[in-house]
């Protein structure tokens, strides 16, 4: 017998550390404390889900993305583009496998909590990401194909918060990212009762936090 409350929330890692966000889109210098402090004050344990873009896109700086982006964007619409798309698809396949592998690890943790009498209140997933988005995501392949048409190539070559806070919400569409769709699939398969809440980071922050906390039935 000790003080543990046996209530857990899982969050996308960038909610704890905005330094992991894609360059140009960190909205805080560190954690999103306005969201985390009420959770902590309610005596809930916080588990972080790994930032898979750091693992699969070349670290914090997304070096893999920025290494190939100039070549990809130069060839959009050219006769070489179908070949580039083919390679992009096979890279995405590998990335999806990574998401699947990491989702399995988290599901096993959740199962362990569940079997040990803990309650998982939910998952808070950053909702503007090709990886962690749950109700909103960015279709990576679609967007790459449309960079020229949308006239946003320059913005991604040198991303800044001012530009990205206008562009990113416009690129979002309904649907789940690679990691969260895998999490949802495996939660269903294992019949775990875990809700996923999409955290709309570009909304008015105070209002969005209230929405998320209400969904979790937590007091501020
Ligand atoms: S949304 Fe997911 S992949 Fe993107 S920075 Fe946050 S944790 Fe990493």
How would you summarize what this structure contains?
This protein is an alpha/beta fold and 220 residues long.
State the main characteristics.
52% helix; 220 residues; binds iron/sulfur cluster; four-stranded parallel beta sheet; 12% strand; alpha/beta
Number of E-type strands: 6
What is the helix content? Answer: 40-55%
Name the bound molecules. iron/sulfur cluster
In the residues, how many domains can be counted? 1
Q: List unreliable stretches of 5+ residues.
A: none
> How do the strands line up in the largest sheet?
2-1-3-6
Main sheet overview: 4 strands, parallel
Strand content: 5-15%
Order of helices and strands: EHHEHHHEEHHHEHEH
| Helix count from the secondary structure assignment | 10
Outline type: globular
Indicate the structural class.
alpha/beta
How does this structure look, described?
The structure is a single chain. The protein has helices at residues 13-16, 33-41, 52-56, 63-74, 81-115, 140-150, 153-157, 161-171, 178-189, 205-215; strands at residues 7-12, 45-49, 119-126, 136-137, 173-174, 196-199. With 220 residues, the protein is of the alpha/beta class. The protein has one domain (7-215). The strands form two sheets. It has a four-stranded parallel β-sheet, with helices on both faces. A two-stranded antiparallel sheet has the order 4-5. It is globular. The structure holds iron/sulfur cluster. Iron/sulfur cluster is lined by residues 12-14, 20-21, 51-53, 126, 129, 131-132.
């Amino acid at each position: 017998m000790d003080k543990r409350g046996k209530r857990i929330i899982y969050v996308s890692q960038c909610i704890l550390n905005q330094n992991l966000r894609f360059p140009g889109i960190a909205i805080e210098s560190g954690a999103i404390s306005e969201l985390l402090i009420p959770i902590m004050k309610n005596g809930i344990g916080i588990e972080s889900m790994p930032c898979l873009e750091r693992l699969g896109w070349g670290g914090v700086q997304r070096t893999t993305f920025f290494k190939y982006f100039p070549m990809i964007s130069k060839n959009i619409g050219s006769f070489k583009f179908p070949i580039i798309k083919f390679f992009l698809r096979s890279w995405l396949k590998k990335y999806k496998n990574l998401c699947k592998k990491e989702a399995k690890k988290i599901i096993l943790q959740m199962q362990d909590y569940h079997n040990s009498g803990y309650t998982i209140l939910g998952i808070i997933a950053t909702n503007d990401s090709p990886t962690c988005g749950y109700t909103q995501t960015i279709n990576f392949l679609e967007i790459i194909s449309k960079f020229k048409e949308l006239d946003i190539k320059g913005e991604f070559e040198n991303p800044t918060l001012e530009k990205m806070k206008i562009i990113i919400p416009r690129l979002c569409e309904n649907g789940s990212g690679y990691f969260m769709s895998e999490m949802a699939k495996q939660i269903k398969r294992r019949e775990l009762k875990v809700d996923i809440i999409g955290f709309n980071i570009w909304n008015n922050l105070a209002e969005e936090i209230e929405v998320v906390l209400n969904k979790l039935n937590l007091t501020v």
